[in-house]
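Extended Data, panel c. Modelled sequence:
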Amino acid sequence: MTYGITRAEALELVCSTFKSVHLINHSLASEAVLRATARRLGTDQEKWGLAGLLHDLDSESQPDLATHTSETVAILKEKGVDSEIVEAIRLHNLTAWPGERRTTSFHYALAAGETITGLIVAAALVIPEKKLAAVKAKSVQKRFKEKAFARGADRETIAECEHAGIPLAEFCQLSLAAMQEIAGEIGL
């Protein structure tokens, strides 16, 4: 199946767009979580992975949530990227699209999946090893309940995994395992 962009082209676009290694790593982590989520739900891993990889393309140029995703949507439409990927990316930031809402498991999974990566990274960085391999799913779940921990990881958005059909505890485990598989690639 073709999506208007290959994984290699998407990765090149991410790497050439971002100055921040952190944002490249976040994109790779989001891709891994989305692929694992798609696998769990029996849907298209390539499509969902591309959405995870490309979702924040304009986060350096459009850091204000009121406009974030607008430039990404324009870039991806111009490149002829699959409309379902573009729509999921657009709706992962509802602040920029007042009155819109997520309606599909793909929408919910991208929003929850890209958000949980921040919680998982934070959970790794507060332990002595500072490695994903040392993080346990139960500690991610515990940190989820601590509202002051990793405040940027919106708990309501992460909990939208349940609208996609995956219970929160399982989503924490699945996301952590996906990120652990690429830990070397993302420096954790």
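The mean pLDDT is 97. This feature is highlighted in the accompanying rendering.
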